[in-house]
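Q: What does the predicted 3D structure of TetR/AcrR family tetracycline transcriptional repressor look like?
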Amino acid sequence: MAHRPLPSLTRDQIVAEAFRLLQDEGLESLSMRRLAARLDVQAPALYWHVADKAELLGLMAGAIYGAAYAGAGAARDWREWLGQFGRALHASLASHRDGARLCAIARPMAPADPDAQAGRIAAPLTALGLDVKQALAHQAVVISFTLGWTTFETNGPMRDFLRQIMDFDSTFTIGLDALVSGLGHPATS
């Protein structure tokens, strides 16, 4: 009996196919078994690369956030950077079906050194004058607003109704700008 060789999978291929499955079928249908079938392997083959579905969701969320960080360019000050980051995160979340829901439920990858990870997350804002604690707090506020807005915006029946009375993009920008302008600098908060 001839054995067919297992294709060489990579974590990146698995995550990319998971995003395609998410796009085609939605978050409720994202399972390791369905993902394996799409990759033409048995589900246990996936576990060589990801521990479980929770880790897969964390990797997917990390990719969404990674695109947002990459989309926030050089800025003159921390408020400008936060605005860019919020808009980039909104675009990244919206580019994936159920992207906001996925990020809201995903378990973050456990860093080997939480303090070093906090420093990396805060780095764009510490370079612009905030301390790590304030930088993390300000990013958390922008992320929370953006996740909430994107979830609100993608809720089918509510979305259809609200599109008749508002423009989601301009309303998001108004809210984000108001939020960011209201954040205080460490010396004033």
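A (community wiki): The structure tokens above were generated from the sequence. Residues 22 and 28 are 9 Å apart (CA to CA). Residues 132-154 form the longest helix (23 residues).
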